[in-house]
Structures are given as C-alpha cells and as structure tokens.
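Sample intake sheet
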Amino acid sequence: MSFKRRLFETLEKGQGDDTLSRRFDIFIMTMILLNVAAVILETVDSIHDGYPEVFNYFEYLSVFVFTLEYIGRVWTCTYIEKYRHPFWGRIRFILSFMAIVDLLAIMPFYLPLLFSIDGRVLRILRLFRIVRIFKMGRYSTAFNMIVRVVTKRREELLVTLTIVFVMLILASSLMYYVENEAQPEVFRNIPETMWWGVATLTTVGYGDVYPITGLGKLLGAFIAILGVGIFALPAGIIASGFEFEISQRIREKERKEIEEREKN
C-alpha cells in the first residue's frame, strides 16, 4: 500500500479494525477540545497572565498539527470519487464545507504574519479559533446526526423561520404604533422595537422594554402566548427528525446483527 493511500485511510474516520486511524481520530478530537478550552481560559486574565508561554506554545503545536492535517487532506482527497480529478477535484474539496472549516481553524494564526492587522481585529481573529470545534463534525456521531437532521428537514425549518420572521415584523410594527406616543424614548422606531419583539416572541422577556398602555399590554400578552406556539414548531420538527434518525440507526444495527448471526 502506498504512503498516500495509507495517509488517506488514517485521516478519514477510523474503522473498527484500523487501530492507527482510530488513534488519530482520538488525538485530533483531544486537540480540538483542548483548543476550545484554551480559547475560553485565555479570556480569564488571571490564568492567561500566569501561563502565557503555555498558551503560546500550545497554539504553535495546534497550528502545526492542524496545518499538516489540512495539507494531508488536500493531497489525499483524490481517493474520494467526487474529488478524483487531480486539479479540479482538489479545488472542489478546498471549497467544501469541512475543508473551509479546516482552513478557518488555522487562518487566525497565519493572517497576522502576512498582513499588518489592527489590534482589535487581531483579538477577533484569536477568538475566531473557536471555529475549531466544528472540526469535530468529522469524528462525532452527534455532530453528524445534527447535520443530517437539519439537512433533511431544511424545507420545514425554512417555512417555520419565515413564519417567525413575518410575525416579528408584524408584532414590532403593531407595538410601535401602539406604544410610540406613550414611550417615544423606548419605542422610537420599528427596528428598535424589534428587540422587544424578539424577547417577547421567544418568551424570554428581559423586562428592559415593555408596554405600559392597556392596549400595549393586551397586544404584548397575545404575542407572548403566540410566541410559545410559533417557537414550538421548529423544536417539534427537529425532535421528529432526531427520532427518525435514531430509529434508522437502531434498525441498521439490528440488520447487521442478523446478518452476522446468519453468517455464523
């Protein structure tokens, strides 16, 4: 077996009998989780200021590992049927979602080396490293299931999101016209009233913006009740999608067990 082929098999999600690939998966997942923890802990001044070298060296190690992984995936992607062409196949792979995630995971390190970047932008880029958590999608069954559910139910979810958007505009517009005279400093215009609309439709209700007129309170109560039903729609769609995926996995597992018993 060629080195390129073995590297491809190692980089792909490990199979049950491929010890090296499974160990590589565990190593990468551990690196991803440690990177997320590092991004979070860096925001705690007492921790970051106490161990700045540790964070820096760990970032160098992480970028080195993720860069080699990215280069290896681009090099070996031609073993995948849809990326088989040596040039255009690699271009399509580079533009794929997971390849873009891999690139974004290392980009915050390299950009300041190539360009002069303002300090505030640099802080944002450093925080942008949190995108590395999406690399878990290659190795985590839960991540893959979430993607499959959202992909299969995208039409239903789009319909419900459209309904939510329409209701937000209507609720904010009505509340603006009802409350503007009574609270011109709070409900100054419809865009600012949308903050109240989002908080009310999601039933969060922070209490910083609220109606004081009788009609406004009645409208607010109606919209709050309506929001419970509206936001239950996408939750129900996603829940049914998960139930379908889980039942499919159970049936597939049972089918494989039956085939194994028949072979034996």
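Comment: The mean pLDDT is 85. Residues 29 and 57 are 19 Å apart (CA to CA).
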